[in-house]
């Protein structure tokens, strides 16, 4: 019976058995591996490793095969120790990629948030009404969904590393012209191009991260990436406000453009494409063949994806209010200064930094314990969104410290769906279509983006006072979010989707 020895699994999650090389049976000379063994070694894995061994041992793998096949316990332990560093390196590299994606989303959302943080100076300098400013903010979404779809399909064919670098380059360069010409036309052009470049950012970032983590370990890295987005909206707020106060709102736009270019250079120098395409055993039947494909009509009609779309759409309405109008809400309705509003937004981000990893770790832990994704992901996401809607209604009737507490809680809980939603979508989507599916879902979900600022601006202009208008807008948003969460409870169920209509069978799926 042939001896076996462990070889590194590309997922980093364990070992797989592989036939050992020929034994040393020729009087002290090693037998040369045959063509089949050499071909197997050539197909062994990533970064040119030999049979899963990387580093100094890679060039000696034929010797390692022949001398280790009949080796005793010491040799076996040596082989295991030789393999462990690669797994550790892969884990470190995976989290390095996640850290860079965190910074990617931080700059991304800081680019969006700078408009809301500079709302007062911009409206004053350009002579804009609330409605006009709301329409300028809405222009960001003119090509946002289109860009999300294009980027999603592109990343199915092009390495995510290059797509992310191109996106960062686009939305960094479009910030710089505002330092030279600050007019309504240049501001609208900035928002449109920025929206096109940022539309695919989050789904492509999630897709890139999922190449490093199996299904049951994706919620935590997704939460870290999402926290980057939230940190760009909140933690960066005091810095942006300080730049606006010390220099000008144009300088804040230029600073973000430069930071984006620096990130792009760091990403190209440090990141590489992940090699993991599979899922956990629980979802293996849904992605057994990475080349299998479905029609997008069938895929988007999946009840889980429909549920994620509805909950995400209503939650994105709330998120858009936080990005565009929350600083104005805090100053005009609750009496805080611009500096105080910036610090309150930072507290919101800190709340999210605490909440999202905790919720994600809970979700991953429940799945590893055998809980259904409907409960471990879907129910947690919907319950968090429902609570966010209720607290937003409470915020519309609050003031003082209670308003600050409600702001932190509502805008933290409302973001849970943006962490767990992509995980749910990935569970019911063939790997070869995952980038496009995430892009399409993001495109539809973010259609709330152009509506929320415009509707809120009109509510403010027709209300007898700014404070009353803001409270009415918050009441409407809270009720809308509650309805979306209730719909999600009834729809999101990945296990039922796969049991009733398996997306990809072990023998393949329908062509797209």
The description of the largest β-sheet is: 2 strands, antiparallel
Could you tell me the radius of gyration in angstroms?
A: 26 Å
Beta-strand residue percentage: under 5%
Distance between the termini: 45 Å
Average pLDDT figure:
76
- What is the number of strand segments? 2
Form type: globular
Q: Which structural class matches the secondary elements?
A: mainly alpha
Helix content: 55-70%
Task: Count the DSSP helices.
Answer: 22
**H/E series:** EEHHHHHHHHHHHHHHHHHHHHHH
Strand order of the largest sheet: 1-2
Spans of at least 5 consecutive residues whose pLDDT stays below 50 are 1-74, 277-290, 503-512
Overview of this protein structure:
- The chain has 512 residues and is an all-alpha fold.
- Helices cover 69% and strands 2% of the residues.
- It contains 22 helices and two strands.
- The chain has helices at residues 35-42, 61-68, 73-117, 119-126, 130-139, 144-154, 160-173, 184-198, 201-210, 219-233, 237-246, 249-270, 296-300, 303-332, 338-368, 373-396, 400-413, 417-427, 434-445, 448-462, 466-491, 494-500, and strands at 4-8, 15-19.
- Strands 1-2 form a two-stranded antiparallel sheet.
- Helix 5 (130-139) packs parallel to helix 8, helix 10 runs antiparallel to helix 15 and helix 14 (303-332) runs antiparallel to helix 18 (417-427).
- The radius of gyration is 26 Å and the shape is globular.
- It starts with a strand and ends in a 12-residue tail after the last helix.
- The relative contact order is 0.13.
- Mean pLDDT is 76; it is low at 1-74, 277-290 and 503-512.
């Amino acid at each position: 019976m042939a001896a076996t020895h462990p070889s590194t699994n590309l997922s980093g999650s364990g070992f797989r058995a592989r036939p050992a090389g020929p034994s040393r049976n020729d009087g002290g000379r090693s037998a040369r591996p045959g063509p089949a063994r050499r071909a197997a070694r050539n197909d062994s894995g990533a970064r040119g490793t030999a049979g899963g061994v990387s580093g100094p041992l890679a060039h000696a793998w034929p010797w390692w095969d022949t001398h280790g096949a009949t080796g005793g316990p010491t040799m076996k332990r040596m082989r295991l120790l030789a393999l462990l560093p690669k797994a550790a390196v892969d884990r470190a590299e995976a989290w390095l990629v996640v850290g860079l994606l965190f910074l990617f989303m931080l700059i991304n959302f800081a680019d969006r948030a700078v408009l809301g943080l500079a709302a007062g100076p911009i409206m004053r300098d350009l002579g804009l009404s609330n409605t006009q400013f709301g329409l300028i903010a809405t222009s960001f979404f003119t090509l946002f969904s289109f860009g999300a779809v294009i980027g999603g399909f592109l990343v199915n064919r092009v390495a995510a590393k290059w797509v992310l670098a191109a996106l960062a380059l686009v939305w960094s360069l479009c910030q710089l012209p505002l330092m030279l010409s600050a007019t309504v036309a240049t501001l609208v052009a900035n928002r449109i191009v920025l929206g096109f470049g940022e539309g695919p950012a989050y789904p492509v970032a999630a897709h890139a991260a999922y190449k490093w983590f199996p299904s049951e370990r994706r919620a935590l890295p997704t939460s870290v990436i999402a926290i980057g987005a939230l940190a760009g909206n909140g933690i960066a707020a005091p810095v942006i406000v300080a730049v606006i106060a010390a220099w000008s709102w144009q300088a804040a736009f230029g600073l973000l453009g430069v930071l984006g270019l620096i990130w792009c250079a760091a990403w190209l120098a440090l990141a590489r494409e992940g090699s993991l395409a599979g899922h956990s055993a629980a979802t293996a039947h849904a992605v057994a063949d990475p080349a299998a494909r479905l029609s997008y009509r069938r895929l988007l009609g999946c009840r889980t994806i429909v549920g994620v779309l509805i909950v995400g759409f209503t939650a994105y309405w709330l998120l858009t209010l936080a990005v565009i109008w929350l600083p104005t809400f805090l100053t005009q309705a609750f009496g805080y200064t611009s500096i105080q509003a910036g610090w309150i937004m930072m507290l919101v981000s800190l709340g999210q930094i605490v909440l999202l990893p905790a919720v994600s770790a809970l979700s991953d832990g429940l799945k590893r314990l055998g809980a259904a994704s409907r409960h471990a992901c879907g129910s947690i996401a919907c319950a968090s969104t429902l609570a966010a809607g209720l607290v937003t209604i409470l915020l519309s009737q609050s003031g003082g410290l209670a308003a600050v507490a409600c702001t932190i809680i509502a805008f933290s809980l409302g973001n849970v769906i943006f962490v767990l939603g992509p995980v749910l979508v990935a569970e019911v989507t063939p790997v070869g279509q995952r980038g496009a599916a995430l892009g399409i879902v993001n495109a539809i979900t973010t259609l709330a983006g152009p509506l929320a600022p415009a509707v809120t601006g009109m509510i403010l202009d027709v209300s007898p006072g700014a404070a009353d208008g803001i409270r009415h807008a918050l009441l409407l948003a809270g009720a809308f979010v509650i309805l979306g969460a209730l719909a999600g409870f009834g729809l999101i169920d990945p296990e039922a989707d796969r049991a009733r209509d398996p997306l990809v069978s072990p023998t393949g799926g329908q062509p797209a």
